[in-house]
Specification:
- The protein is of the alpha/beta class and 613 residues long.
- The chain contains 25 helices and 17 strands.
- The chain has a 7-stranded parallel sheet with strand order 11-12-13-14-15-16-17.
- It starts with 14 loop residues before the first helix and ends with a helix.
- The structure holds one DNA strand of 29 nucleotides.
Length: 613
DNA sequence: GCCGTTTTCGGCCCGACTGTTTTCAGTCG
């Protein structure tokens, strides 16, 4: 077959694109008042988004059967997804688009406008796009439609403005301080007993789409007033007696819900979500003849739980489920069986194993980083400045690394109750070799290896590259394994299961890099690593003193979302234990491969049992 | 269209706010 006859290769559709098509189906069906199906398509869209591997891979490996096996996807939607992946089109969706040729996703993204409204606008005024809608509102043609009025027109125009100013989901690390400041202000309102940020922020998802605040108070009016008068508020979407919605200056929307203190736990649970977790909880309640809503858990008219979350879970026969696990990914089954692990806590880091200083591209001296680490309650840090290949950062060569190690030795002689470890963040070259000689790596306390370039290699090449670096007997930790930058740079295409298997085999620790735009490994991969018995390091990757706090805040959040316990995290141990874990299982003196017998899994399982006490 | 401690049919989470309504539909979370 001559090459010219071949079809040009079409880029496989991403999960996000498949989910968008499913969501569009849901909106069109909703518009046509089709019962139940919209919910099914929405649920399927969520399921697709939750996958940790591309659908097109699953389809390529297992065909239609592999797709239909996914939760929330059955024969009908499975067949349509398959069609979409094979042909790039979904005929049923195309038919709906032909019948009602409107930008339904765009139009319904306006606050307060849903599919029913879009239908009326299209049928009466021929509105198809956001531009059509803006024109119709400006010309005053919308106000005469049924269920619309002058207020609706103004609301839509304002919605269009706000849409233009929305930044979409924002990094957890940037939003967290904003949320905390709002919590603090709400707690100052007289009569407020509790004020908490809920939603995906409380679950510590890596990005946040909006903020939710749950306040327990007697005087609802005072809380709502304080909320809409927050200095950050640029627009009030809605304001009722117990509820308010506003737009903040950073482009995020924030919701407030005020409840009686008796309901606080139920409300906090409800507004923490996730939606899938809530639905599963409600079904569980229903099967027990109970009703769960934001006011409590009820048997008939009688509230049997609601003041605290713990009370609600207990009354449902569940162990308490930490917010970070509430994604309906097996946590409810685990809670029923008492299998919720004791997650690593936010105050449990004792060291930090990735820190840059003014020896390369950091802004502070080793001593300044030590002081900042001490202030956070840490008792050891590793100095891991960049190496030769990263010339832009003034990366160290062998001689300079040894010079720095000597400076650290002298510093340690002066320090009391604190230990500085010598180290490096060596560069993994495109072929998997390192940019620092083994003889020098052998003399450092902590060797991290990381990818800093050639990000677009094929999966095979990139995986081979990383595995080769991990096989180096001196490499202790794989730093920011996929080298992603959230919202900016795609992760390196790695066979993550192969990397995890190699980590177990070689005794290499996988890092959770806690910089807000990295969070790498990400939560789903952490969970797979934990299940495989990998050891983890939770590091700040700090380039200045203020970055150090990211490890205990964002890094631990990712570890918890990955179901990690303290036993899984090497730098939650004493410095001696940490070093032993890093160096354990290295090649023996005879240069034989590391023993594979030391599985991190058996270590962590053993320690986990011990850690119960 | 999906799913199963109500299992292959008959259910499908629940309540507040808004704007247009004189009793409620649409939207949102």
């Amino acid at each position: 077959m001559p090459p010219a006859r071949r079809q040009p290769a079409r880029r496989p559709l991403s999960n996000a694109e498949v989910a968008r098509a499913l969501r569009e189906m849901a909106l069109f069906l909703e518009m046509r008042d089709v019962p139940f199906k919209p919910r099914a398509y929405e649920k399927a869209a969520l399921a697709v988004e939750a996958l940790d591997r591309p659908l097109h891979e699953i389809a390529a490996e297992r065909g239609l059967a592999g797709v239909e096996e996914l939760p929330g996807i059955g024969r009908g939607i499975g067949r349509r997804i398959h069609e979409l992946l094979e042909t790039g089109r979904m005929e049923d969706l195309e038919a709906l688009r032909r019948e009602t040729p409107v930008d339904i996703v765009g139009l319904t993204s306006i606050e307060g406008l849903g599919p029913k409204g879009v239908r009326v606008l299209y049928e009466a005024l021929g509105v198809r796009t956001l531009e059509d809608l803006e024109r119709a509102c400006r010309e005053g043609r919308v106000r005469s439609l049924p269920h619309f009025g002058e207020r609706s027109e103004r609301k839509i125009l304002r919605g269009l403005e706000l849409l233009a100013g929305t930044a979409g989901r924002q990094l957890l690390g940037l939003v967290l301080p904003v949320a905390r400041a709002i919590e603090a202000r709400l707690r100052e309102v007289p009569g407020v007993e509790r004020a908490d940020a809920a939603g995906s922020l409380r679950r510590r998802r890596e990005t946040v789409g909006d903020l939710d605040f749950v306040v327990a108070a007697r005087d609802f009016e005072a809380v709502a007033r304080a909320f809409v008068e927050l200095p950050d508020v640029v627009h009030v979407h809605a304001r009722g007696e117990t509820k308010a919605m506003v737009r903040l200056a950073n482009g995020l929307d924030a919701d407030l819900r005020v409840v009686e203190p008796e309901c606080h736990g139920a409300a906090l649970c409800y507004f923490t979500g996730s939606k899938a977790h809530n639905v599963a909880l409600r079904r569980l309640a229903q099967r027990q003849g109970l009703k769960l809503n934001e006011y409590g858990l009820f048997r008939g008219e009688k509230r049997i739980a609601g003041r605290t979350e713990e009370e609600v879970y207990e009354a449902l026969g569940l162990a308490f489920i930490p917010p970070e696990l509430r994604e309906d990914r097996g946590e409810i089954e685990a809670a029923l069986e008492g299998r919720i692990p004791e997650l690593i806590g936010y105050g449990e880091l004792r060291g930090d194993l990735q820190i840059q200083t003014d020896w390369t591209d950091g802004s502070a001296s080793i001593e300044e980083m030590v002081e900042a680490a001490r202030a956070l309650g840490l008792s050891y840090i590793a100095i891991t400045d960049h190496t030769r290949d990263l010339a832009m950062t003034g990366g160290s060569d062998e001689a300079r690394l040894l010079e720095q190690a000597e400076a650290i030795r002298k510093l340690n002689a002066r320090l009391r109750g604190f230990r500085v470890l010598s180290g490096a963040e060596v560069n993994i070259r495109p072929d998997g070799s390192l940019d620092i000689a083994d003889e020098v790596l052998a003399r450092l306390d902590v060797v991290g290896a990381a990818i800093h370039g050639s990000f677009r290699q094929s999966r095979e090449v990139a995986t081979r590259r990383v595995l080769r670096a991990m096989e180096n007997p001196h490499v202790d930790i794989l730093f920011h394994p996929t080298a992603r930058s959230i919202g900016r740079r795609e992760p390196v295409d790695l066979d993550i299961d192969a990397v995890i298997a190699a980590a177990v085999r070689t005794g290499t620790v996988l890092e959770i890099d806690a910089m807000p735009d990295r969070l790498d490994l990400k939560d789903e991969y952490v969970r797979r690593a934990v299940e495989a018995g990998c050891l983890l390091a939770v590091d700040s990757d700090a380039h200045q003193p203020s970055h150090l706090a990211y490890a205990g805040e964002l890094g631990i959040a990712v570890a918890r979302r990955g179901w990690a316990t303290r036993a899984h995290v090497v730098n939650a141990q004493s410095v001696e234990r940490c070093l032993a874990l890093l160096k354990d299982g290295r090649k023996g003196p005879g240069g034989r491969p590391r023993r594979t017998g030391r599985s991190a899994g058996s270590t962590s399982r053993g320690r986990r049992r011990a850690g119960r006490h």
